Amino acid sequence: MRTRNARHSAPRSFRWRAHFLVVLLGLIAGALLCRAVDLQLFDYSFLSKQGDARFTRVVDIAAHRGTVTDRYGEPLAVSTPVDSIWVNPKQIANAGGQVARLAEALGINRQELLRRITSNLDRDFLYVARQCQPAEAARIKALGIPGVYLSREYRRYYPAGEVTGQLVGFTNVDDQGQAGLELAYDQWLTGIDGEKRVIQDRYGRIVQDIESIRPARPGRDLVLSIDLRIQYLAYRALKEQVAEQKASSGAVVVIDIATGEVLAMVDQPAFNPNDRDQMLPGRYRNRALTDVYEPGSSMKPFFVAAGLISGRYDDRSIIDTSPGFIKVGAHVFTDEHDLGPVDIAMILAKSSNVGMAHLALSLPPKLIWTTLRGFGFGQLATSGYPGESAGLLAPLRAWRPIDIATMSHGYGISVTTLQLAHAYATVGALGVSRPISFLRVDSPPEGARVMDPRLCRELIAMMRSVISMEGTAPLAAIPGYTVSGKTGTAWKADDGSYEQHHYVSVFAGVAPASAPRLAAAVMINDPQNGIHMGGDVSAPVFAKVVGRALRLMAVEPDEPVAQPEEVRTASLQ
C-alpha cells in the first residue's frame, strides 16, 4: 500500500516542479520581453545617444588655402596636404609605457613628451607633431598606440622661395597669414573648414561616413600683378650688385605705367618663407615699402615739375648757377664745378644743387608742397600692403627757405622705394597718378591728374640728358630704347647727423622715353666697395632689369642700337 502511494506521489511532485519551472521561465521570458520593449521603444533615444557618443564623432574637413599666382598663373604660394599627430592624454597615459614608444617613433625627448601629456590630462586633445608628411604620419598610426590620432591639415609651400619671399610673405603653422600679401589678403585666401559625422572603431579609425554636416569651402585663389619673369630678373640683378658693392641691403620696384601694377618688387638680403628658421622680423620685412631714406637728387625732377606747373619755367629757361655756390641763411650749397648759365636739362644732367636751389626758392612754397603731394610723397601709396610707410614730407607751415633748398636736392624728405617708383610712373603716365596694385587688373584704372601732359613730355625730355654721356647716369642706357631718369646719392643720417662715408645710392626712371611703358626705382643701401654714386651703383641695375623686361614684354624699340666701330666701318665699305 505504501509502495503504491509512493509511486503515485512521485509524479505529482515532479509535475509540481515542472509547473514551477515553466512559470519561472515564463516570468523570466516576460521580464526580458518587457525590458526589450522598454529599451527599443521607450529608451531608444537615450541609448542611441549613448551609442553615438561612443562610436560616432563629428570630425573637421580641412579646407585648403587659396593659391597665389603671378599674372600668368605661375604658382607663388600653394597648400599641400599633410597630417598632424595628436593624442588623447588620458587614453595614452593609461595605456602603460606607450608614451616612450611614441616619443621614440617621433624622435623627440621622452621626458618632455611625458611632461606635456601628464600636465594636460584634463584635456581630450593635444598636438604632439604638426604638419608631418603623410608617409611619416601613417607609420606612426600603424604602431597602434591607444589614444594616438591623425588629422588632415595643409602646409603652405612657396615655389619661388626667396625670389618672392618678402613680397608674398608667409603663414603660420595654422595656415593663417602673418606677413606680406598672405596677411593683406588673408580673409580672401582662407578657406572654411567643413564637418562630417562618422563612425569610428575603438582605435579611432573611421569605419563609415554617416552624413555631411557642412561642406568645406576652399579659399579663393589670388592672381597677383607680379610677372615672375621680371621678378627673377630684378632679383638676380639686385643680388649681384649688392654683393659686388658690399652693400648692406637693396630694393627694386618695377611698375607698369599704363595700369599702376607692380610687376616686380625684390629685396636684398632675401628671405625664404619655406625655411621657418628665417622667420625673423629683420629678415622678412619688405624694405621696398617699409624702409624710408632721403632720396638725394632723384627728387630734383619733381621740383622741376613744380617750376613747369608754375609757368615761370619751360625747357628753354636758363638759370645762372655762377659762381658755383648759393648761400641760404647760414648754409652754403655748392656744385662740383661752376656751370654758369645753363638750361634746366643741364641742371638735371649735372645734378646742380645750386641751380635747383635757385629754381625752388623762386617758387611759392604751397605750389611745391601741392606738387609733391600730388606725386604721392608723404602719404601711403594705396597699395594696402601691411606695414607700408608713408615716408616723411614736413607740413607746409614748418617750411623755411633753408628747408626748401635742402629738399630740392633730396634731403629733409624721406621716401620708400615704392613711392619713388610710383612718382616716376606718374610722370611716365603723362601726369596721371594711378593707384598702385599688387593684383592683376584687366583694364587701366582711372587716376588723378596731377600735371599737364605737355609739361610731363617736357620733363621726360629734359631727364633724357641725365642718361647722356654728359649726364650722371650713362650706365642707365638701354640699347635700343631711350631712357629718362635721375640719379640720387645721399649721405645716411644717424642720430641727427650725416655719416660722411655711408650713402644711399638711387636711380629711378622710365623707358622707353618716347612712350613710357615701365617705371622703376633702384635703391642700394651703404655700398662699401669704393664707389657710391647712384649713377655708378644703381643705374646699371636699372638698365639690366628694365632693358630685359622691355624685351620680354615685346615692347618695340624706339632708338637704333649703336653698332661697334668696326661694324659701322664695315657697313660703310
Q: Can you walk me through this structure?
A:
With 573 residues, the chain is an alpha+beta fold. It folds into two domains: 58-133 and 144-223, Penicillin-binding protein 2a (Domain 2) (Alpha-Beta Complex), CATH 3.90.1310; 228-274 and 284-552, DD-peptidase/beta-lactamase superfamily (Beta-lactamase), CATH 3.40.710. The protein has 22 helices and 21 strands. Helix 4 (98-106) crosses helix 5 (110-118), helix 13 (300-310) packs across helix 19 and helix 15 (353-361) crosses helix 17. The radius of gyration is 38 Å and the shape is elongated. 42% of the residues are buried. Mean pLDDT is 87; it is low at 564-573.
CA radius of gyration: 38 Å
User: What do we call the CATH homologous superfamily of the largest domain?
Assistant: DD-peptidase/beta-lactamase superfamily
Distance between the termini: 162 Å
Number of strands: 21
Low-confidence runs (pLDDT<50, min 5 residues)? 564-573
Outline the biggest β-sheet.
5 strands, mixed
Q: Classify the beta-strand content into a percent band.
A: 15-25%
User: What value does the average pLDDT take?
Assistant: 87
CATH class placement of the largest domain: Alpha Beta
CATH domain topology of the largest domain = Beta-lactamase
Structural class: alpha+beta
Tally of contiguous helical segments: 22
CATH architecture of the largest domain: 3-Layer(aba) Sandwich
Instruction: Specify the overall morphology.
Output: elongated
Tell me the number of structural domains: 2
Share of helix, binned: 25-40%
